[in-house]
Design goal:
6-stranded mixed sheet; 9 helices; Purple Acid Phosphatase, chain A, domain 2; disordered N terminus; alpha/beta
Length: 397
C-alpha cells in the first residue's frame, strides 16, 4: 500500500508538466462563459487592435480605386452615334395658273380648268414624285387675283385666287415669287397673291421676303430674286436674305433666281454671276427660271446650280413648240446637325403636256425615246459645266 501511495503524487506532477509544455495557446472564455477566443499579443501603441471595416469582397491589400464596383461609376457611357437625316427636295419650273387675254378661249388655261373642275388634274401625273419628297418648290409665274388693271406689256397673267388649291392638291409646299409677272395687274395683284398664298399655307420667297419650311426637325430657308431687276440689286437681296436665314439657323438654303435670255440654252453673265455669288454666300442649291427652256446644270464649290427648269404647268402658252421640261431632285444628308458632302441628285424628264398636239397643262414624266432625248440634251448642256447624267437620270459622281 505504501508503494502505491508514493506513486500517486509522481503521476500528478508528470501530468501537470506535460500540460505546461503544450504549444497551443490557452483558450479564454468570455464573461458569459461561451464563444472562446484566442489570446494574442498586445497591439502596438497607437494602432487599433482590430482591422478596419471593408466593403464585402475587398481585400485589405487591394486599393479601393481598383474595386470594380467603384470603377463602374467612373466609366462614361459610350457616345450615341449622331442621327442621320435625309432631306429630298424637288424643284420644277414656271407654273402659270391663268392665261393672257389674247390666248384662244377654247384652249386656254381657264377653259381647261372649267372643263375638268378638278384641282388635282394638273399635277396628277407628277404628284407621285412630289408627295414622297420633303419639299417641292416651283416658280409661280403670274398672279392670283380678281383685282387690278392690266399692265401695258406683251403678256400678263392672272388667275382666280381659288387656283391656289392646284398647288395644295399637287403636294407643292413652296413657291418662288420674284419674277417679271408677279405684278402683271399692278401692285394690288402682287399683294393679293401673297395674301392668297399665306391663307393657303403655301410658303413663298419674294425679293426681301425670305421663308423657312420646317421638316424632319430641319429648317429649309428660301430666297428668291428677279435678276431682271439688276445684278447689283439682286446680289444685295441674296446677301441680306442668306444672312437673315443664317441668323435663324437654317439648315439648308435655296436661292431661286429669275434670270437669263428667253428661248435659248446659252447662259448669260447675269445668271452665272448671281448663281456663283449665291453659293459663295452660303446657298446649298440654286434654281433658275425665266428662259422657258432647259439649260445646263453646274456643280460649283460643291453646290448644284440648275440654270433653267423651263416651263412646267404653264398657262402662258397654249401650244409651246418646246415642251421639254424636267423635275430636279436632290437628297441632302445630315449627321446630327452637320450637312454632309453629298452629290445625290437626279433629273426626271417630263413634257409640259400629256399630249404632243397641244398644251393641256398637265406635266407628264416621259419614257423611252422622249426620256433619252432629254437626258442627252441635258448632258450636252451640262458637260461643259462639269456635270454628267447617267441613263437613269442620276448625276454621275
Amino acid at each position: 500500500m505504501k508503494k502505491y501511495f508514493y506513486a500517486i503524487p509522481f503521476a500528478l506532477a508528470l501530468c501537470l508538466s506535460l500540460l505546461g509544455c503544450s504549444n497551443k495557446p490557452a483558450k479564454q472564455e468570455t464573461a458569459a462563459g461561451r464563444h472562446p477566443i484566442e489570446t494574442s499579443k498586445p497591439a502596438a501603441a497607437g494602432f487599433p487592435e482590430t482591422s478596419p471595416s471593408l466593403p464585402p469582397g475587398q481585400d485589405i491589400d487591394t486599393p479601393q480605386e481598383d474595386n470594380p464596383q467603384n470603377n463602374a461609376a467612373l466609366i462614361k457611357p459610350p457616345k450615341k452615334a449622331p442621327q442621320t437625316t435625309k432631306i429630298t427636295i424637288s424643284a420644277a419650273g414656271d407654273c402659270t395658273f391663268g392665261s393672257d387675254q389674247s390666248s384662244p378661249a377654247s384652249v386656254n388655261f381657264y377653259s381647261v380648268y372649267n372643263k375638268k373642275k378638278n384641282d388635282a388634274y394638273f399635277f396628277q401625273n407628277v404628284k407621285k414624285y412630289f408627295e414622297k419628297d420633303d419639299l417641292t418648290l416651283v416658280n409661280l409665274e403670274g398672279t392670283l387675283t380678281k383685282n387690278g388693271t392690266r399692265m401695258d406689256k406683251t403678256y400678263a397673267f392672272r388667275g382666280d385666287p381659288s387656283y391656289v388649291n392646284i398647288l395644295k392638291k399637287g403636294s407643292i409646299e413652296a413657291v418662288s415669287f420674284a419674277n417679271n409677272h408677279c405684278k402683271d395687274y399692278g401692285e394690288i395683284s402682287y399683294t393679293d397673291t401673297i395674301h392668297t398664298l399665306k391663307k393657303a399655307g403655301i410658303k413663298y420667297a419674294s425679293y426681301e421676303k425670305t421663308s423657312i419650311y420646317r421638316t424632319k426637325k430641319k429648317k429649309i430657308g428660301m430666297v428668291a430674286v428677279n435678276g431682271l431687276s439688276g445684278t447689283d440689286y439682286s446680289k444685295k437681296l441674296i446677301n441680306s436674305g442668306i444672312k437673315k436665314l443664317k441668323k435663324k439657323k437654317a439648315d439648308l438654303i435655296i436661292v431661286s433666281m429669275h434670270a437669263g435670255i428667253e428661248h435659248t440654252s446659252s447662259l448669260n453673265d447675269t445668271q452665272t454671276q448671281l448663281a456663283h455669288y449665291a453659293v459663295q454666300k452660303g446657298a446649298d442649291l440654286v434654281l433658275g427660271h425665266h428662259p422657258h427652256t432647259l439649260q445646263g446644270i453646274e456643280k460649283y464649290k460643291g453646290a448644284y446650280i440648275v440654270y433653267s427648269l423651263a416651263n412646267f404647268c404653264f398657262g402662258g402658252n397654249t401650244n409651246p413648240s418646246d415642251k421639254d421640261t424636267m423635275i430636279f431632285q436632290q437628297t441632302f444628308t445630315f449627321k446630327g446637325n452637320k450637312l454632309q458632302k453629298n452629290t445625290s441628285a437626279r433629273i426626271i424628264p417630263c413634257r409640259v403636256s400629256s399630249t404632243t398636239a397641244i398644251n393641256n397643262y398637265q406635266p407628264t414624266p416621259l419614257k423611252g425615246a422622249g426620256r433619252r432625248n432629254i437626258i442627252q440634251k441635258m448632258n450636252s448642256f451640262s458637260k461643259p459645266l462639269g456635270v454628267h447624267f447617267q441613263r437613269d437620270g442620276k448625276i454621275q459622281n
